[in-house]
Amino acid sequence: MRLTPLAKQLSREKLISCLKLATKNDPTSHALPYALGVHLTQEGDMNDPSDERWEEICLGVESFERSIVLNPADARAHYNLGMALSDRHKYAMRTRRMHLLPPPQEAAESLINALETAIQLEIKCDEAGCSNGINIAEAFLTLGDFVLRLKNFDLARIYLNQVEACIKGVGDTDEDWAQSMLQQVSAMLDYIHENEAIVKL
């Protein structure tokens, strides 16, 4: 099944229906649930507060998890699972669905495991000359942002400090996306410093 030509020919709704059916008919393919997860989480409107959109995001998370079970060495699946978990958390906060999320500790462990695994796999792939193009700096930023929301300042600082190192390592410091990330990191580190100062008072 050639997914790219199919994606260009069908509407999002029809493509998702097709991928759901294909995933059911071929439960051994890791590529099908991965593609389904991408279209469910990344192609939808994150400003849509409907139950239908919430169900899409949750199914997207489950699809990435299924893909990883079938192919645990796929860095892209781990990365997209981590990003989807982060997006689900933010979406739940905006739409008052926090009660539908896993407990904070469980959610943190799932996201940390997904993105740290993605980072480790991508580094190995890059060393072998088969990089997947994963933005490791963005993975560290997402980790830092997530654990900061849980008030784990020490761990957040560790992750955030890795962002600048990753950007400098690939020589992209002057890129717009890199500058935006560095500004976010600076704001988060300032927030940590301010809150730690308050605690010490």
In brief, what are we looking at here?
The protein is an all-alpha fold and 201 residues long. Helix content is 76%, strand content 0%.
Please give a handful of descriptors for the protein shown.
76% helix, 201 residues, single chain, mainly alpha
Descriptive overview:
The chain is an all-alpha fold and 201 residues long. The chain is 76% helix and 0% strand. The chain is built from 9 helices and no strands. The protein has helices spanning 3-9, 12-25, 31-42, 51-70, 75-94, 104-127, 136-149, 153-169, 176-200. Helix 2 (12-25) packs antiparallel against helix 3 (31-42). The longest helix has 25 residues, at 176-200. It is globular.
How are the SSEs placed, and which strands pair?
Elements: H1 3-9, H2 12-25, H3 31-42, H4 51-70, H5 75-94, H6 104-127, H7 136-149, H8 153-169, H9 176-200
**Structural class computed from helices and strand pairing:** mainly alpha
Fraction in beta strands = under 5%
Task: Please state the average pLDDT score.
Answer: 92
Oligomer: single chain
